[in-house]
Amino acid sequence: MKPRMQRPFTATPAHQRGAVMVLVVIALASMLLMGALALDGSHMLLNKTRLQNAVDAAALSGAKTLQLVAGSGSASTLTRDAALATLTLNADPDTGNGELATAITAAGGVGDFAMVELSSSVYGPFSYPFAGPGEASYVRVKVPDYPLTGFFWGAAQSLPEWLGGNPELPDKAVAAIATAGPSPTASTCKIDPIVVCGDPAQYDPENGNFWGYRYGDLQTLTCGTPGSPSAGNCQLLRLGDSSGGADIRQAFCAGTEQCIDESGSVNTEPGITWGPVAQGLNTRLGLYNGPVDPSSCPPDWYTNYSQPLVAMDGGVAKQDGAQVVSTNGDLSAGGNPLTDVNDWKNAYMGCAESPGSCSGVAERRVLNIVIGNCAAVAGGGATSVPVLGFGCFYLLQKVEQSGAKEVFGQFMQECEGSGYAGPTPADDTGPNIIQLYKSYFSGVSTPSPDS
Asked: Do 260 and 302 fall within a single domain?
């Protein structure tokens, strides 16, 4: 008897009926989601860019108007009207912004679509009408919700999860925010009398390099060390016809009115005069030593600093033997956090939000300094240093009068004063330059992703 041959089981046509249909449905769903990603994604990106441009223009227009009407009783209203009018002009169907115009109309008008607020500080608090301390200088325009037409977006929301849909997908919309105010290189002629040596070959602002310096990193300004313009010169500015320790002390104590041409040069003062330098700078931390007048040299709102002090050791900044490292402006040594510029910013916000709660004067710890090309200088004594630019330098800690001649601090990206004015200023306010800033919220060390 022959053994029966066993054939492997194969499905009959009846058992395969409908299998192709399932594959087709899954393939179509995948294609639909890919279409949503390509079409809706590019549509959102395009409209986000258009909205940001419109909001940027509105903030600049509002800040320019505020500069012109500052001090008047209707400054808040005039500023808001100018910003919203510019936003409306940008929502023009003839320029391709018809969808923005439709959204403004659907919201009930541009006043309900966008918010305009004012502040005396780039860090806030912002309000409308302006109710903060000091004079308003900065304008913030924000659009929190700009709904967009969904092409395949609704399908992606309605498809079941097993087909790649997401019922929790939010409605298709974008947002934008912009802050504008006076340029930190053009707002006043009040500077601090020191030149910081920069490297003209190390200027790459797109990658955060400003003449060899980066925002947030710890820096030291030193005297009597290599890098000074010439032997025996401490990079101190000559203050017009004034000279000597008393003038240097008062200048570091209260600043000095001296307009600098960004394309020109600055004259330096021979000598170190370190005692007056330290005495003048320390007033900003509420420390008074020597012939200084507290009434003309008030402390900053925030005077805290870490101890023991940071000091240079073999060319490395250390605290208590541990190297100081910086992460986005946050300083630490041996794993322990230091009191740094981000702590100052947060304290600044608290003081600004509660007028009268902090004694002293805002921004006293921020030095407005000249960055110069010291390598182009030859010879000794009083020298002339070409100007590369200007910087905002946060005073990290008190300055020791004895021992190493060092000033520690961090460069800041935004500050509200400066040493720049045009070559022939009509007054001490500098040229009327308005620029955009990053927008900050609860954590002032982290800007809004929409700005």
From this structure: yes
The DSSP-derived string for 38-74 is: IIIHHHHHHHHHHHHHHHHHHHHHHHHHHHHHTTSTT
125 & 241 share domain: no
Contact (Cβ atoms closer than 8 angstroms) between residue 301 and residue 362: yes
**Considering the entire predicted model, what is its pTM?**
0.59
| 298 and 354 assigned to the same domain | yes
Residue by residue, DSSP assigns 332-398 as EETTEE---HHHHHHHHHHHHHSTTSS-SBTTTTEEEEEEE-GGG--SSSS-EEEEEEEEEEEE-SP
Contact 115, 407 (CB under 8 A): no
Task: Give the C-alpha separation, 125 to 436, whole Å.
Answer: 17
Q: Helix, strand, coil % (nearest 5) of the chain?
A: 30, 25, 45
Q: What is the DSSP string of 133-145?
A: SS---EEEEEEEE
Burial of 157 (0-12, 13-18, 19+ CB in 10 A): middle
- Looking at the structure, do residues 121 and 61 belong to the same domain, yes or no? yes
Query: Are 204 and 169 part of one and the same domain?
Result: no
Domain region containing 66 = 22-182
Indicate whether 127 belongs to any domain. yes
Same domain, 42 and 140: yes
Q: Could you report the per-residue pLDDT of 192-242, keeping only the tens digit for each?
A: 888 888 888 888 877 778 888 888 888 887 665 544 444 455 677 776 665
| Bond from prior residue into 308 cis (ω within 30 degrees of 0) | yes
Sheet holding 336-337, edge to edge: 311-313, 316-319, 322-327, 330-333, 336-337
